[in-house]
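Figure caption, in words: inputs first, then the predicted bound structure.
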Amino acid sequence: MIKYKSREEIEIMRESAQLVSKTLGMLAPEIKPGVTPLHLDKLAYDFIKDHGGEPGFLGMYDFPNTLCTSINEQVVHGIPTDNALKEGDVISVDCGVFMNGYYGDHAYTFEVGEVSPEVKALLDATKESLYKGIEQTCVGKRIGDIGYAIQKYTEDRGYGVVRELVGHGLGKVMHEDPQVPNYGRQGRGKKIQEGLVIAIEPMINLGTHRVKQLPDGWNIVTADGKVSAHFEHDVAVVDGKPEILSTFDYIYEALGLPKDVVVA
Ligand code: MG
Ligand code: MG
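Bound structure (magnesium ion present):
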C-alpha cells in the first residue's frame, strides 16, 4: 500500500534528503586514488551522527556499514573494503539517513581521477536518465512512464538497464510501495498522486543489462564485468509536479562543477 505524505511530512523528509546530500558533498573531495572505501564509510558515519541523523543502511537487513560503495563492475550494495581506489575507477556511493522519523536515500557515481571517455559518457547518460524519469513524476502520469523514460534514454545510447533492482517509495520505512523500475511501458502501472514520495535510482550498465550476485550475499556485479553507474534522487509530488528533495549541488560545489539544469 502506498503511504502518501502530507506537506508537513514532505518538509521533514526534505531535511533527511538534504543531510544525505550533504554527506555525499562532504565525501566528494575525499574520493581520489589511494583512498579506501572503508575510510569514506567512517567519514560518512561521523558526519551523519554529528548532524543529528542515524546512518540509514547500518544494520538494515544486517548490512554492516553506513555506505554502499560499488566500484566499476559492481552495480550496487557493495560493502566498503580497505582496497584503495585507483586512478580511472568509478565508485557509486549510496547513502541512507534516518532523521526525525523519516529516511533519505541518495546515490552518486564518482570518478576517481580521470576516467575513460566511454565511462564518462555512461555516467552522464545515467544521471540524465534520472532527470528524464523525474520529469514524468507528475499527477496524470503512471509509474510505468518513469521507467519508460529512463529505459528509452539509456537504451537508445546502447546501455543496459538493470532489471533486478528498482527504485521505491520512501518514508518512515526505507523501502515502501510502490516499486519504481527503471524500465517500463508508457501509461502502465500505478497512477502518480499528490503526496507520493519515491526514490528514483537508475542503475545502468555499459554493456549487458544482466547482473549476478556475489557469494557474500550483497554485492551485485555486471554479468560481463563492464562498468555500471547509479544515481538516485528523492522526489515528492507537490502541486501535481515533481519536487526533488535531495540535491547533487553539494557535490558540485565541492568539486567546482556546474550544477544540473533541472527542469522539474
Ligand atoms: Mg534507494
Ligand atoms: Mg540508495
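The chain has a mean pLDDT of 97.
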